[in-house]
Design brief:
Layout: H1 7-13, H2 15-31, E1 36-40, E2 50-53, H3 59-91, H4 98-109, H5 115-130, H6 134-151, H7 157-178
Antiparallel strand pairs: 1-2
Length: 179
Amino acid sequence: MFFIIPGPVIAAVTFPGVIVHEAAHLLFCRLRKVAVFDACFFRFGNPAGYVVHEPPKDFTSTLLICMGPFLLNTLLCVAICFPVMLPREVFGVHNGNLLMLWLGISIGMHAIPSTGDVSTLWHEGWAAAKRGNPLGILSLPLAGLIALVNAGRIIWLDAIYGAAVGIGLPMLLLNWLSA
């Protein structure tokens, strides 16, 4: 059975993920030389964070800015949780480092691009696809999948993703390496 907790409460409890999500947008704006007008890494409200930037000049930049949080949050989730899972899976030692697991999973569950990111990806992807851009064409099913995952937040799909990446992936890798 699933229960609903208001988004601002979830954002407050998992604030490191919100901060990394917005930092990823900012990072990819900087890397692609897209001017940023305002950024808020965390606040109590909706949205919990944001980055306001100029429209990117090309679709590659749009794709990277929209998907940057997915890449960065996922990588950080694994990097933070892996050292916690290593002693558990390899040596059977439960180091009880729940703080690190909370941090990693909090970051991982905010990897999923927001509805605003998906909307941008969808509209810009269609425009790029009409111009024959292969990335634009590939982005359309990706945007659809992300929209479904966003809808799945009501059944905690974002938390399931964070736990799968932070706990499940290291367990699978370590079990595979030790086999």
